[in-house]
Amino acid sequence: SLYISEYFSQSAQKLSFYSWYGNAKLFHFHVPEDTVLLRWLLQASRGKGPECTNMEITVHFRYGAPPVINPLGTRFPANATVRPSYNISITLSGAVQNTTFVNVTTPAAGDWFIAAHLPEAAGRIEVKGFSTPCHYVFQADMFVLRLADTPVLEPGVPTLQTVASPAKPLHAKVFVPKHAAGMRFELRRCVTSEQKACAVRVVLGSITLPQSFQKIVTCTGTVNCSLALDSPPWEKWLQIMVESLGAANASVSVEMLASFTACRPGSTSSFLNFSSLNHSQAVPRPGSAGAAGSSALSAGEVSRNVSHQRSFCLQNQPVVREDLDVVSVRYRLLNGPTVPVNSLSPTLVLLNLNTGMDSGGSLVVSLLLNKTSVSLANATVVACVSAASPALSLNATQNCSTAFFQGYPLSVNASSAEATLIVLYPQTDDWFLSLQLVCPKGQGECNAAEAKVTVFAYLTPCFNDCGPYGQCSLLRRHGYLYAGCSCKAGWGGWSCTDDTKAQSVGAQNLATLLLTLSNFMFLPAIAVAVYRYYLVEASVYTYTMFFSTFYHACDQPGIAVMCIMDYDTLQYCDFLGSVVSIWVTILCMSRVKKILKYVLFILGTLLIAMSLQLDRRGVWNMMGPCLFALAIMIAAWVHHGVKRRHCYPSSWKRWVFYLLPGITLAFIAVSVYAFMETNENYYYTHSIWHVLVACSVAFLLPPRDKHKKPWAWSQKLTCRYQICQNDREELYAVT
Questions:
Q1: CA distance 483 to 485
Q2: Which residue has the higher pLDDT, 668 or 646?
Q3: Burial class (CB in 10 A: 0-12, 13-18, 19+), 316
Q4: Helix and strand tally (H, E) in the chain?
Q5: Which helix (H) or strand (E) element contains residue 280?
Q6: CATH architecture label of 3-123+131-147
Q7: Cis before residue 649, ω within 30 degrees of 0?
Q8: Which residues cross the membrane (predicted)?
Q9: Which residues of 158-194 are buried (b: 16+ CB within 10 A; e: fewer)?
Q10: Does residue 377 surpass a pLDDT of 80?
């Protein structure tokens, strides 16, 4: 055989601590057809600084769609199907780099996904620039070995092949046609080169993760052995591998035969009604008015259709796929949302999810039984949602499985008329919804019965749009798009439905009140500034108080939210007001000339506005203006001290009762802001930051100029006559 090796690589990604699905780094690969060996090369590395510690990286694998993971152990939404992902752990301990290989023999062709992440996030809010985080980097490369001349079996035609040795198994394939109800594989005339007893192992199918449904049979001696498959995957190549279990140097000759059982499909309409495509059909959701379906057929109509339906193994329902948006699809049944279901053959609804861009959302299938349409009270409509091929024997076994896929069962009856299924990240393939009527006393009881079931199916990025306590985010890895829910207010889970750690409404209101009302501590600072004639500074403090109040009212994660304008605008104005308040306060303390002070006010504000636009959360946006203003203040104070030949400020009362308390409050505020804030205590630690900063400003503002007198409102009023004031400067002779 001729083997071809190929290598695929993607750029490395920096890993993040896990708090929601967006923190997991996704890698998307495509495995070509006829691949016999797949090898993943996983490389993990970390920085060399002292902040880098031992770390465990979790890597998840899945075929057909991104892995469904749950590192935090939260609850999934009701009616959601969850199957554990296949994962491994990579430990970075003493070594800076770790290289791991993962081998998969006879992998399924198509999309494969890898997701990697660090352990759960600590929840501490780190200010950018105050600490140096350790960088953990992960890269996944893929090696494939595929056959260039894979033998092809023709259905119904015996094919003679040779297994060279146990180390070199035989690989072959057969194409499964559409509407194949079953397949039978036979191994005939097994002969060894040493004329000894033949022993081979036959493996049908490919490996898919997290679950693999390969069929294995061991054949010994000269007796023919066979393997039967129900509902093999339609319109796909089925891989066949034959391994020799005999001597190392002995070859084995085998004759293989693959045959299929055809399924004759029927349809509820003889032609496609194109006129129905010209207008949008409103599909009612289950439980809404108009979703109950039409009335049951009369007994005469049913009896006339029984003989016609016996000749078909399934009844197709024409479906139109409507693409609404990214990872958003609605399936519209042309004959109406209500479909007839009987016991003679399953009713089939095709859900096309094979575009390659549909696996990043959630497939929702809802059923509603029209109770008046079922003449038998104890009858049940059994449904199965499966990929690649439909389940065709629901009335006999009620087993929701096909040859290589375990489907998702549903059922509705008179006592439970509604059923919903949520498939998270459905794999790329053709999906089928099979429905059939089942009676407890046997099929004969249901021959003349028919049920009406309303089917509603759609693909959505996030189920229920993540609810009121979540935000649906569209994520991207190169050209592949997928969605995830980012939860807030303590809620968790895949769709933000887990309220184990959720904040109560009272706690949400308290958090909003603390973060907004704490800004009113700027009122004393504003009053002091106005009293001392620092009107520009008072205007800046008023601006900061206003936008900080409404920014935090809009920034809340729960239901206690009020946004007076765009969130990004409020955030920018809040950050700008905070930094400018520090800037003007320190410059005011420097006691430079007014013209120079106001020039520095304007120039600094413009530069701060520019830097915040470049990097809003950078620590130097605050530290830079602070350090530069402190340098100006120290230079001005030194100049005043040298000029007056004593320390400046000269009053010890000024130091003890104003400057030292103000500096202490400012230092505590910076410490709380930089090192103590976490996601859990943010609402009260940040409120303490507001209070401390506002109080420090009131202490640090210098006294008014000596030539200015306090506000005398009585002297500002003009009633009948003007109160004049002599502002002449007195000249004193110095002797």
A1: 7
A2: 668
A3: middle
A4: 11, 33
A5: none
A6: Sandwich (2.60)
A7: yes
A8: 510-534, 595-614, 620-639, 655-676, 682-701
A9: eeebebeebeebbbbbbebeebbbbbebbbbebbbee
A10: no
Instruction: Please state, in angstroms and rounded to a whole number, the distance separating the CA atoms of residues 614 and 621.
Output: 10
- Give the integer Cα–Cα distance in Å for 553 and 584: 26
User: What was the pLDDT predicted at 717?
Assistant: 47
Phi, psi (degrees; rounded to nearest 5) at 343? -95, -10
Q: How far apart are CA 280 and CA 317, in angstroms?
A: 18
Residue 357: what residue type?
A: M
Q: Treating both helix axes as pointing N-terminal to C-terminal, what angle do 594-614 and 620-644 enclose, rounded to 10 degrees?
A: 160
Q: Which string of b and e fits 590-628 if b means at least 16 CB within 10 Å?
A: bbbeeeebeebbeebbeebeebbeeeeeeeebbbbbbeb
d(CA 448, CA 127): 72
Strand bridging mode 3-9 / 136-147: antiparallel
Paired tokens of 128? 């950018």
**Which CATH number fits the domain 159-262, given the four candidates 3.40.50.2000, 2.60.40.1220, 2.60.120.260, 2.70.50.50?**
2.60.120.260
3-state secondary structure 182-207: EEEEEEEEEEECCCCCCEEEEEECCE
**DSSP per position, 358-421:** STTSEEEEEEEE-GGG-S-TT-EEEEEEEESS----TTTT---B-SS-B-EEEEEESS--EEEE
* Architecture of the domain delimited by 505-700: Up-down Bundle (1.20)
- Check residues 52 and 285 and name the one with the higher pLDDT: 52
Q: Where in the chain is the domain with CATH 2.60.120.260?
A: 159-262
Angstrom distance (rounded) from CA 217 to CA 202: 5
CA distance 35 to 107: 7
* Beta-strand pair 429-438/380-387: antiparallel
Q: If you ran DSSP here, which 8-state letter would residue 255 be given?
A: E
- Residue 111 · residue 65 · CB < 8 Å: yes
The alpha carbon dihedral of 277, 279, 280, 281 has a sign of negative
Burial environment of residue 283 by CB neighbours within 10 A (0 to 12, 13 to 18, 19 or more): buried
Q: What is the pLDDT of residues 381-401, one digit of tens each?
A: 899 999 999 988 876 666 888
> What is the CATH number that goes with domain 312-460?
2.60.120.680
pLDDT of residue 413: 87
Structure tokens at 541: 């403090």
CATH 2.60.120.680 intervals, the chain: 312-460
Element (H, E) at 84: none
